[in-house]
Amino acid sequence: MQALQITIPRWNITEFSGYEPITTFWQDFSIADKFGNNAITDTYRRAKSEWKDNYKYWTELCLVLNHKIWQWHERDNPR
Question: Can you tell me the distance from the alpha carbon of 13 to that of 5, in angstroms, rounded to the nearest whole number?
Fold first, then answer.
């Protein structure tokens, strides 16, 4: 059996804004990216159901999704 190799892109949010992430949402969605839309949907649903009452985590989830949407847009619409 081969080991699964997944490269997680660096999230430059700290350099960009000074914000220090408090969750693993960036890593979670980066891993889900490699497994497709169903994995992304599942990751979102799990995060939402587990952290919906934590405004700090919810805010970070929104930050991650905004950055991921930008990445997906850039990937799907090259200049």
Answer: 24
Name the amino acid, one letter, at 14: T
Q: What angle do CA 37, 33, 42 make, to 5 degrees?
A: 50
CA distance 68 to 45: 16
Contact 61, 24 (CB under 8 A): no
How far does CA 54 lie from the centroid of its chain?
Answer: 17
What's the chain's length in residues? Answer: 79
In degrees and rounded to multiples of 5, residue 49 shows phi and psi of -70, -35
pLDDT in tens, the chain (79 residues): 788 888 898 999 999 899 999 999 999 999 999 999 999 999 999 999 999 999 999 999 999 999 999 988 888 888 8
- The amino acid occupying position 68 is K
Domain locations in the chain?
24-76
